[in-house]
Design a protein that fits this description.
Layout (H helix, E strand, L loop, with lengths): L4 E4 L5 H8 L5 H4 L8 H12 L3 E8 L2 E11 L3 H4 L2 E9 L8 H15 L4 E4 L6 H9 L17
């Protein structure tokens, strides 16, 4: 397993991040990684950058971006006022899955949560992503809740 480096994404990383997000059967139906990227992705990235405790991270193998994830700190009242880290949009290049990169990324996220004072790390994963479920369970995550979403863009 080669060691990766992880850093916060910049706007110039956005095309590669969008490619990673669309590089699987589910993501390919949700995202638009064409060139040039639609303006709404740049606008979303700028909103994320302005929000404290919300960042996109990229994983690099040598100088190539091979993974991405969004990490968001959420202050709350429940659980005695614990701050949570929400992990979203975790992707590893399809040609490098099962190589240990995802595990390194998750260890980075968990360590960042600890050093940032979070008491809980949570994530959601689509029900169809059974390989991802096994991956997260091997890292110690438990399916303790049932997640629900309401898509406000559907008629």
């Amino acid at each position: 397993m080669e060691k990766i480096s992880i850093r916060k994404a910049t706007i110039s990383d956005l095309p590669t991040v969008l490619h990673l997000l669309s590089d699987d059967p589910l993501g390919s139906t949700r995202e638009q990684s064409r060139h040039p990227l639609p303006l709404f992705y740049r606008q979303a990235f700028e909103r994320i950058k302005k929000q404290s405790g919300n960042d996109i991270y990229v994983a690099l193998l040598k100088d190539e971006i091979v993974g991405c994830m969004q990490l968001t700190m959420i202050a709350g009242l429940s659980r005695k006022g614990v701050t949570r880290m929400q992990i979203e949009s975790v992707r590893v290049s399809s040609k490098l899955r099962s190589s240990g990169i995802g595990k390194q990324m998750m260890k980075y996220a968990i360590e960042l949560a600890k050093t940032s004072g979070c008491g809980l790390v949570q994530l959601t994963t689509d029900k169809s992503r059974t390989d991802a479920h096994r991956f997260y369970e091997r890292l110690g995550f438990t399916a303790s809740h049932e997640g629900m979403k309401l898509d406000l863009f559907k008629d």
